[in-house]
Amino acid sequence: MVALPYVWLMLFFVVPFVIVLKISFSDVDLAIPPYKPLLDWVGKNSLAIKLNFNNYAFLFTDSLYLRAFANSVKVALISTLLCLIIGYPMAYGIARSRPATRSVLLLLVILPFWTSLLLRVYAWIGLLKANGVINNVLLSLGLIHEPLTMLYTPFAMYIGIVYSYLPFLILPLYANLEKMDWQLLEAAEDLGSRPWQAFYKITLPLSRNGILAGSMLVFIPVVGEFVIPVLLGGPNVLMIGRVLWDEFFSNRAWPVASAVAILLLILLVPFMMWYQSVQARESAGTR
Amino acid sequence: MASTSGAVTKPKLWDDPNARPYVQVDRVTKTFGDFKAVDDVSLKIYKGEIFCLLGASGCGKTTLLRMLGGFETPTSGKIIIDGEDMTGVPPYERPVNMMFQSYALFPHMTVEQNVAFGLKQDRVPKAQIQERVATMLELVKLQDFAKRKPQQLSGGQKQRVALARSLVKRPKLLLLDEPLGALDKKLREHTQFELISLQDKLGVTFVVVTHDQEEAMTLASRIGVMNHGEIVQAGTPSEIYEFPGSKFVADFVGSVNMFEGKLIEDEPQYVRIGSEELGGVIYVSHGISAPPGATVWAAVRPEKIFMSTAPPAGTDNSARGAVQDIAYLGDLSIYLVRLPTGKVVRVTQPNTSRHAEAITWDQQVYLSWDATSPVVVTR
User: Fold this and answer.
1) Which of B186, B207, B212, B278 is deepest in the core (most CB within 10 A)?
2) What is the fold, at CATH topology level, of the domain defined by A63-284?
3) Looking at the partner chain, which of A189, A192, A206 has a beta carbon nearest the beta carbon of B108?
């Protein structure tokens, strides 16, 4: 039973990772699969191993890749910030509501998960497109005279990302705030804090772990996000997930695509480790 | 158990009609929906007092305290502190600090930072903050724990941090919500006296909420006994104990034997009450104001009843019964004596001698008391 998590990890993480790592060091080939094996028999009794580092070197020579990485991190940062600004008051409100109201509000947060992500993103296309719901309503109200261009802009992409990832921020933050002793705020007010000062000096520092955990749960997946930028952001949004897709399926450059994937992983590992340590601290109850 | 606090020797401001009350609660009512938590309460508290609000849980004492602190707004009536009307003044602008029952220490701050918090909010100069915090920590004997976090402290230490934090701003009024409730018995007794000497030293007016009558008796200069949102009686601990104004107060503060009866003689100097419960007559050496024939109750404290194996002189204020149960508490013993009427009377006797001739179970004994002992209440 103890070994089960390791078997799981082996099967679904280590093995695929090793395969991708292996491909990232191979040469491209016009074959199926489209790369050459690393190991080759040369002569009768000798096995040669050939590691091709060009795939990685290539990522640093063509500026496209670094720009894509940088832009992905930027999009992830902005999305996380937007999620925090919108999600913190929501988590706070839920945590401070009466228990009966609370379960209803939590259900509302989780409810969108019951539909497929793809379906929900397509629904946003229907809302945002030139003759979509929003434009039609604004036009019929006479507030605008020409449809606004919203779809296939960064604006649409951020809407999609924030909408999809908000629950990932709200839930851990709520779990943290729900444990908060609200009498501490009364104590702070009693000692001379205005309500906003009490929030800044007591609630905010005490919810730090919740903020960090929620932010990581948004930031990490958004860096590699593919579906939402493609469907809502349009062709001009440069994200690393999309570069990966193009290399893999359009260019059939599996080795370069694998190198991109490995680099993305290396970029995200420190954040994942940070998230882990925050989680450990949170469950240990120290602040 | 009677008052041991130093306040007794202070001038009794509450008896002086010209004295200016420091805190005035003026016809305050607080309702939550249909529920009247505090019902038309008026109180005058004087400077330097330790005023205890005593009552069972749900009697409204905490709501009244929270209104003094500004955490609840009175539905009607007003609260005046040192001449200033507190209506509409938020907690952070009141010259009042509160020590919470849970202590509400900030878990992410050290002891020092907790105590300094209020001073920082008031933008007191840094050097002065340091000095005042150090003095305060010394006063509560926590100078060696300044850098600790609250979760590294014992219950008693947390209590002292909370006290230091609420006193460091030198409030005009300190509110204490069950200040000793979370401490064990030995520590509680010790802390009670510490609290009194601290209050004496600083001269801050205290309002204490407690459900523990012993705590109220020890701490208070005066006690306000609350029931169903009303103050049923306010007075010094000995007044409350020796002259309870109602059955509720007599019963709530200390233990008491209550004999129901009818007034048969009502003179200015004395009354006589015929009590079926006692199976005899109770003679009380003070007059009361009730119509003859009215139903009244005579309350006799267990320690004021004499118990002997020989019959007492006279027939009033006496009864005969059998010892039903004995509880030996070391310093004193409690005897439950069953009268022929079925009424069980509680008697306490100090164990003054180590080898006294012991009264045992089922023994026939005589009970009697002085004419000055009973208190007659009419409600």
Assistant:
1) B207
2) MetI-like fold (1.10.3720)
3) A206
B6-95+171-248 is a CATH 3.40.50.300 domain: yes
> Could you read off the pLDDT tens digit of each residue along chain B, which spans 379 residues?
344 444 444 567 788 888 889 999 999 999 999 999 999 999 999 999 999 999 999 899 999 999 999 999 999 999 999 999 999 999 999 999 999 999 999 999 999 999 999 999 999 999 999 999 999 999 999 999 999 999 999 999 999 999 999 999 999 999 999 998 878 888 888 888 889 988 988 889 999 999 998 889 989 999 999 999 999 999 999 999 999 999 999 989 888 999 999 988 888 888 899 998 898 899 998 877 777 788 899 999 999 999 988 888 888 899 999 999 999 888 889 999 999 999 999 999 888 877 666 788 899 999 999 999 999 998 8
User: Closest Cα partner for B40 from B228, B171, B210, B220?
Assistant: B228
In this structure, chain A runs to a length of 287
**How far B96 CA sits from the closest chain A CA (Å)?**
8
Q: Which residues of B touch A (CB under 8 A)?
A: 69, 71, 90-92, 96-98, 100, 102, 104-108, 117-118, 121-122, 165-166, 169
Q: Show Cβ contacts of residue B198 under 8 Å, excluding neighbours closer than 6 positions.
A: B139, B140, B163, B167
Superfamily of domain B255-377: Nucleic acid-binding proteins (2.40.50.140)
Hunting for tokens 């202590």 — which residue is that?
B103
